[in-house]
Amino acid sequence: MAAPEHVERIVIENCSIATVDADDTEYASGHVVVAGNRIESVGAGRAPEGLANVVRRIDGTGHLVTPGLINTHHHFYQWITRGLATDHNLFDWLVALYPTWARIDEPMVRAAAQGSLAMMARGGVTTAMDHHYVYPQGSGDLSGAIIGAARDMGVRFTLARGSMDRSVKDGGLPPDFAVETLEGALAGTEATIDAHHDASFDAMTQVAAAPCSPFSISTELLRQGAELARRKGVRMHTHGSETVEEEKFCHELFGMGPTDYFESTGWLGDDVWMAHCVHMNDSDIAAFARTGTGVAHCPSSNARLAAGIARVPDMLAAGVPVGLGVDGTASNESGELHTELRNALLINRLGAHREKALNARQALRLGTYGGAQVLGRAGQIGSLEPGKLADLVLWKLDTLAHASIADPVTALVFGAAAPVTLSLVDGRPVVEDNHLITADEDAIARATRDEARRLARIAAGA
Predict the structure, then answer these.
(1) CB-based contact 103:462 (threshold 8 Å)
(2) 41 - beta bridge partners?
(3) Which terminus of the chain faces fewer neighbouring Cβ atoms within 10 Å, N or C?
(4) d(CA 148, CA 112)
(5) 283, exposed or middle or buried, with CB in 10 Å at 0-12, 13-18, 19+?
(6) Residue 416's closest CA among 337, 312, 340, 342?
(7) What does DSSP say about strands 54-59 and 322-324: parallel, antiparallel, or unpaired?
(8) Dist CA 419 CA 423 (whole Å)
(9) Handedness of CA 83, 88, 94, 99 (dihedral sign)
(10) 370-418 pLDDT tens trace
(11) What does DSSP assign to residue 370?
């Protein structure tokens, strides 16, 4: 259905286009018309004549238009603990950093969220996600601070309201003062859903229920968390099968591997996505495919923590929905998603499938439509199609960094990070000429530096 004539339109022409639709439709020179917050038309050649109320017309010569990138796993608060414990595996890294993380407060979390969001948005992310699971008593409204930062930045956002109730005294990894009670975690999650979740088509903020990981939560929190999520009609997220140590932990404590444990607690299904899933056997992958359970693949973090190489080609071949994640910036200090497009492709080629593992277009799909699938929003975002929300990126590919690469998708994925000439979220500009227009990057840098120093002082004096 055509948009009303009074709706303002933005026209982008003379650009290469990768729609990432079901047929991977591409145009060597085409147009995109945005009407309000929706994509009105996409096609070859110039835009239709006689469009009403065109407020902006962009010559996209030398550019590629793609759907906006979608980040499916992150921990924003870690922005202010970057560069620490750089030579640790996951369990040792967590033990080293949990005592510091347990002392975060609302100003720290707000600044860290701003830093994380700014880095992603200026690099082409239009939908962000944060799995926040550290809620120290008396630390303020952490969920509200994160959601407010995303709203101010102008990006589409999912908060995965996390929780932990298994501390060191219960055989877990977090210190005792870093966890919530079972009742407190469930109540906090429900309150966040009630206050912030928007189920509408063009929602800018959604909430998922997200107990942290098998080694930091009780079985009862998993079970009741799943019941809460399904009663409220929201998605579910957690960490799964990240390391061999986690596999061993689950067998010792529960008598089964992570996937079987998750299935026994109600945590497989088409409303669930899990981060990492590095150590998955054929049976695990089949279970994810059978149930429609999604995966957030975080190649840089998995390499940083020496976790291993996820079997992404096998997951995709089985029909498992797979998106990309930055993961927390204490295990991926760059904090932006283009790196994950490139590293997903390169790292998976070190695995069993070698050069056949992934190609450039599959990597782009992971970072766009695949992300929309695992967030439950494939009908609204993730591809450039009429009627979908106007979340898109115009990448500049005619500079020194890319000018000699003939294929634009290859240039974007294999090449250096491309400048973002324009990023639209819900039809509104967020990035122009490679700079955020919704936030002051220098002010955010100062705030995050100050809060990182304050946290370090508090942790040192504890």
Answers:
(1) yes
(2) 33
(3) N
(4) 12
(5) exposed
(6) 342
(7) unpaired
(8) 11
(9) negative
(10) 999 999 999 999 999 999 999 999 999 999 999 999 999 999 999 999 9
(11) I
Cα–Cα distance list, 385 to 41, 128, 169 (Å)? 7, 21, 52
205-262 tens-digit pLDDT? 999 999 999 889 999 999 999 999 999 999 999 999 998 988 898 999 899 999 999 9
Report pLDDT digits (tens) over 95-151: 899 999 999 999 999 999 999 999 999 999 999 999 999 999 899 999 999 999 999
Q: Going by C-beta distance under 8 Å and a sequence separation of 6 or more, which residues neighbour residue 386?
A: 38, 39, 40, 41, 42
Residue 349's identity, in one-letter code, is R
Write down the pTM of the prediction: 0.97
Encoded tokens for 302: 């998995």
- Closest Cα to residue 399, out of 416, 383, 414? 416
Number of Cβ within 10 Å of residue 335's Cβ equals 25
Of the candidates 209, 216, 220, the residue with the CA atom closest to the CA atom of residue 165? 216
- 158: part of which helix (H) or strand (E)? strand 156-163
Q: Is 40 left (phi over 0), alpha (psi -120 to 50) or beta?
A: alpha
pLDDT over 80 at 4, yes or no: no
Sequence-distant (≥ 6) Cβ neighbours of residue 82 within 8 angstroms: 329, 330, 333, 335, 452
Q: How deeply is 212 buried, as exposed, middle or buried, from its count of CB atoms within 10 A (0-12, 13-18, 19+)?
A: buried
Determine the length of the chain: 462
* CA proximity to 422, closest of 109, 57, 176: 57
Euclidean distance between CA atoms 229 and 227, whole angstroms: 6
d(CA 336, CA 325): 9
